[in-house]
Predict the structure.
Amino acid sequence: MTDVSLIARNLFRKKLRAALMIVSIMTAFLIFGVLVAFEHAFNAGEDLAAADRLMVVNKINFTQPLPYAYYERVKAVEGVRQVSHANWFGGYYQEPKNFLIVLAVEPESYLKIYDRELDVPDDARRAFLSERTGALVGEALAQDKGWKVGDRLPVSSTIYSQKNGGHVWEMTVVGIAKPAKPHIDSNFIVFHYDYFNETRSFGKDMIGWLVLTTTSPAVNDKVAKTVDAMFANSTAETATDTEKAFNKAFAAQFGNIALIVKLVVGAAFVTILMIVGNTMAMAVRERVREIAVLKTLGFPPARILRLILGESLLLALLGGLPGIGLAALAVAALREKLLNFIPGMVMTPDIAVLAVVLMLGLGLVTGIIPAFSAMRLNIASALGRS
Amino acid sequence: MRSLLLQIAATIKINLKSLPQRFWLSLSTVVAVGLVVVVLLSFLAMANGFRQAVKGSGSEDIAIVLRGGSRSELNSTISRDQIRLIEEAPGVARNAEGKPLVSAELYLVVDGLKRATGTKANLPLRGIGPMGAALRKSITLAQGRMFEPGSNEIVVGKGLLAEYRGFELGSTVKFGTTRWTVVGVFEAGGSVFESEIWADLPVVQSLFNRTNFFQTVRARLTGPQAIAALKRYNDEDPRLKLDVKTENEYFADQSSNTTDLIQKLGWPLAIAMAFGALAGALNTMYSSVAARTVEIATLRAIGFGAFPAFVGTLVESLVLSALGGVLGAGATFVFFHGLTASTLGESFTQVVFSFTLTPALALQGIVLALVVGLVGGLFPAIRAARLPIVAGLQG
């Protein structure tokens, strides 16, 4: 009998107990996998932000507008490679509860700036640039609503009104923008700022924010300072920050999600540490005489240690691996449902690797004390026990 | 019958007295169940606290008027003509001088720094007219005075002052290039208004380049039933076509999404954790039955029935889980109840609320704990009842 089969036999000598331990470890890793994927998706804006991209917003708050003229002025700042601008439209489809993320943008520069994130086919790009009422729809949203190129969309705004008093803007889907990486959000519509600006009843020639890329991340600070200094003491002062810092601050507004995830995952792990640790200790106590017999047969202490630790590690992996597998399935199922709230929820290899590390850690922690006590066992007194 | 009850009482006593022999394993069950309850109750207390803050903000005799389809105050725009029409509407109350109790307001978002993290957060700045404060229930000034009309003065809610930096009484706050002095701090019974900054409407309009721009109208109704008349008036006039709701309805809508979301996160997490704890409870109880095999067989041999053996084990499990449930509820109360937090509400601004654990919520947690104890004790109890006596006596 090899050590591996001996370990497996030991673990499954009480099948029900082993199965219960496996279920309990599995649920902990299921919770871990789903929550960490959730947190990653929640903070994806920060992780995916391009190092050379800056956001210029109104210093009062990013919901306050900026004059359109800033677009041209920022373009001329040294160290700025490209600039674009966007305006939150407050979109919905038919009913206000069918909330849509819709931005009115300057098409050409916007696509250039998000070139690395969005995969837009050449014909769609050309159609978007030339069609005044054309809209580019993100893949996730297009799939969710079943929208195709050529569809006419009446998109309403919770904020703006047309000059004729209506709240609906007619748009035509001219292309589908695919996300370049799985984490990237593609639950949006972008359409022409010019079309929006000429038809709306108020806020004319104002824009929501500017987004720019610098010639190199090294000049970020200098560019930010120059831009903010340029508009200091004007009626619309600006606050320029990296996209990363902006996204991080925005995510933080919802609350400390990372802390909540840590606390819940912590609670789940404390539970299994206690349950599995106690059970391993109990399993070894039950087998004291057997271990003494193994020692009598000449098993070296290190091998005894390996057998017990092997058992707790095997248990952790048998529970943890299916647990993280289940988490991957759960994340895939939740992805669609959470599209509007946190797009781009995926089980990444990083999470899986971290999970395996935690499984090994769990196996070691729950096995180490029983393993040492087994290794140090005094043969004579152990055999003397009944 | 009496002997059965005595037998049951005896087995329960034996089971509970033998608990210290399995101290660590039993403790792990108690802690596991307790943690499940803490996770569930902290989410429920968070959802409840948020709901109480938002939902509790509205009055049923105040109407709120928004642009059609706007859903939140931040998005809405209302013209001066429309305000005039609402002032003349049926169902709107008037004061002693015959002036309608109506407040046209502006709702803007400004940045504030969160004390805990130092990060920027969206805070609501509300421009209100002379009727504004009177159209909210239970507004009291805790410090200072109300702003003077026509001046750059603001009053801030107590919750906002507690969570965000730089709004202490007497301090100067900068929004863009404009400077404002904090002249008062108000309380509003823990409602969302306590997370707001108020200033004089015309001053806000002029300093934020929003001259002649209004976003919402609040009107005191002659009574809760008057909302129907106001709604009918609004629907019949093509110049209006606005969304008219009671403040109660409006805030109920505003709280439902976030509250639902927190509850929808809390319950599945707690149920998943309950499965883990259940596995632990089953393991503990099977170990308990195994450890007491000789004892149970002995009791059976001297004439105890199978049913008392069953009940003894089941009660042991229920006692452990109830203990876990009570400890979990207690820990939630000690560590989370009253904790102040803030999140981005439906109006795209921060809502300050405090975790509120109620007895009804605590009961939900204890019921979940007892379900774990019941299922976790049932199967081991069946095993205890079916234990073969002769084999059992041999150990």
About this structure: Chain B touches chain A through 55 residues (CB under 8 Å). The longest helix of chain B spans residues 247-291.
